[in-house]
Fold this sequence. Notes:
alpha/beta, Rossmann fold, disordered C terminus
Amino acid sequence: MFLEPHFKGQRSGWIEVICGSMFSGKTEELIRRLKRARIANLKVEIFKPKIDTRFHETQVVSHDANAIASTPIDHSSDLLKLTEGVSVVGIDEAQFFDTELTVHCQQLALRGMRVIVAGLDMDFRGQPFGPIPHLLAVAEYITKVHAICPHCGNLATHSYRLSKEESTVLLGEKGQYEPRCRTCYHLGGALDQRHPDLNILPEDAM
Length: 206
């Protein structure tokens, strides 16, 4: 459980990154931290990329249907214009933002703001996704959350795309992606050939 750091006698900003695969609870954890900040009577603003309209046009919504109001923006530079007097900034689906997001998050932190960023650390190809790797390098606090692999029950770190779509940006819901552990991810479509009773892979997939 992440507990908010406290600094006595100094005003300090910092960056927190919450990352992991699809269905790992990233947005859920982001919402939890933002709600705690509001309980502490801090001024909070939440942002998400304008292209993310899966569940709601303006709300940040987790896969468990928890939600919090947010402001959709086109470019990370908009953060600098919309955070006057803010203490805590939340950013969801950060992997879809431009590469300048890291620079702008650091500017907010230098202004004394707590910046909480959530996003996928890898795309469906297993490659570092968007600005997330750079944010991980400069963040003071990093939380990697995990889903559960539905094939073996181990911790899932990868997002396996079930469709044949090749575009890197494909807004994901259940039915389009599933979380997988490293081994099951690399087995790919071979897992679809399991015997329904014996739960055994074909020999050529081992």
